[in-house]
Amino acid sequence: TIYPTADQASQAVAHELASIIRQRQAEGRNCVLGLATGSTPKSVYAELIRLHREEGLSFYNVITFNLDEYYPISWSALQSYVRFMWEYLFDHIDIPKENINIPNGSIPKEEIDTFCKNYDAKIDSAGGLDVQLLGIGRTGHIGFNEPGSRLDSTTRLITLDHVTRIDAASDFFGEEHVPRTAITMGIGTIFKAKRIILMAWGEGKAQIIKKTVEGKITESIPATFLQTHPNVGVILDTASCAEL
Ligand code: GLP
Q1: CATH (residue range 2-241)
Q2: Which positions fall inside the Glucosamine/galactosamine-6-phosphate isomerase domain (predicted)?
């Protein structure tokens, strides 16, 4: 679906999430959301906060699982996704703290495998993801599933692509400070979501969106796997679909 502006597209995404949250509330059930970081979802979170403040949308029944986190990183670091999520969403809504799940970027290395297995198991035991939000990186990564990631991959430690580290360099005040690894939900983990919403704004995403939507399905552009999921919404602004 193409909207004239990123703001209009973001409002549509936020309204879709709000309607699922409210529907679940009416049924007395939880709503399980997979959340993303980066600049793309910021305007979606801003609209969710507005709906909370002005239209009484509550998040008491919402359970969240974030896609990824740099490793190693302290939760209090400027660039940590924990910090991002609190700043742009959680601090401003009424979600119970114990319902929030974000990969832990500061656990000892030998505990990562167990942490990742438990993360996937926790998503399953929460009832699975109702909706997974996704941005897209220049390499075609979703979460931090870089080129070479398999369709059946699960949550794990991954080595970041050079292009991804260049793109993150300004956040870290220099490429040499960007962590070399990250913990990411796998493509298989993401694919278990009942619905996936991929978002992209701006002309900088036009090329990768063309490859993702119209290109051959390949491990070298992991986002192309989305062509095979039964319920994906690709939400774009006019600029990001310039090459379609
Ligand atoms: C990072 C995140 C991704 C995100 C991507 C794009 O790599 N791990 O989840 O989709 O950046 O970021 P942006 O939305 O800022 O373009």
Answers
A1: 3.40.50.1360
A2: 5-227
